[in-house]
């Protein structure tokens, strides 16, 4: 049985504070977005190291169905062509943005010596499923199609993300295989949602009160899915795909005190059963977002270093 004593000690006061503060799901999503961005600007530095500055950072507008989206490209020092890592931020498909994850992207670019393309996909409820995965797939295709002008190596491309971004990364891997799109050499999924039907063990094993509660997950899905039946669509729930063969090797991380931990574990097992190399890491004592608390926790720093090393190995010539 999980208790607070099993948490990383420096997480215990944060968890207690979050419980006292509560989570008002009646607040409009746009207001939640603005508040999340404000908190990230004001206090994100206390949890996450800033990362080394890239040699160059540029924003690119990329055409997608019905509009355009921004993709932020960070380049490491040195000459190209460089390998490419496409990063998809988390936030329940409804909140989050580029600035909040810039420190992580800088760390990845410097550590793996790769170009990082951070995708500002359109958010729900204004843009419901399948807009987000389609935006992310369109961004991947655009980047690879423009590899020469972007000075990237189209034969060394990986994708990944966190939470909902991990879900989108897994979906894009399926889309690229199904549509004969760009070949991906690696997928990096941190605390991913892979089954929107709530069928995996983590929903039964992990109680509310650890920063990501069942009600919050369901609320995000209500906003994300115009049709609840889409929960079984494999581009929403990659674990439910009939065929997982032919996908890129996976690095998957789950957190002990996270209701989505069963999603990631089950996906790693399903990939392995389909013949796809899959490495699963369980972070003991961690809650859903704390893997990124690299300023606060030595275990987060160690995990980030290991994950970046795995990415660098996958992107090596």
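^ structure tokens above, recovered residues below v
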């Amino acid at each position: 049985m999980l208790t607070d004593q099993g948490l990383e000690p420096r997480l215990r006061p944060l968890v207690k504070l979050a419980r006292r503060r509560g989570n008002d799901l009646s607040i409009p999503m746009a207001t939640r977005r603005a508040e999340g961005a404000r908190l990230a600007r004001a206090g994100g530095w206390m949890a996450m190291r800033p990362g080394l500055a890239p040699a160059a950072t540029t924003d690119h507008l990329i055409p997608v169905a019905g509009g355009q989206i921004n993709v932020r490209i960070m380049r490491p020092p040195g000459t190209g062509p460089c390998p490419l890592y496409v990063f998809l931020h988390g936030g329940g498909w409804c909140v989050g943005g580029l600035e909040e994850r810039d420190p992580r992207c800088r760390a990845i670019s410097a550590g793996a010596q790769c170009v990082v393309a951070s995708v500002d996909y359109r958010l729900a409820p204004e843009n419901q499923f399948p807009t987000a995965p389609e935006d992310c797939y369109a961004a991947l295709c655009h980047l690879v199609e423009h590899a020469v002008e972007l000075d990237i190596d189209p034969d060394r491309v990986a994708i990944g993300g966190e939470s909902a971004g991990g879900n989108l990364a897994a979906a894009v891997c399926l889309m690229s295989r199904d549509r004969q799109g760009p070949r991906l050499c690696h997928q990096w999924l941190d605390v991913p949602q892979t089954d929107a039907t709530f069928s995996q063990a983590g929903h039964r094993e992990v109680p509310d009160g650890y920063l990501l509660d069942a009600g919050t997950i369901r609320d995000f899905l209500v906003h994300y899915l115009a049709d609840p039946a889409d929960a079984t669509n494999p581009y929403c729930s990659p674990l439910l795909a009939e065929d997982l063969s032919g996908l890129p090797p996976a690095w998957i991380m789950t957190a002990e005190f996270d209701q989505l931990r069963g999603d990631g574990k089950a996906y790693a097992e399903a990939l392995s059963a389909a013949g796809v190399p899959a490495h699963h890491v369980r972070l003991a004592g961690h809650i859903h977002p704390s893997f990124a608390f690299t300023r606060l926790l030595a275990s987060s720093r160690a995990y980030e270093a290991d994950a970046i090393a795995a990415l660098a190995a996958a992107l090596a010539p």
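The radius of gyration is 18 Å.
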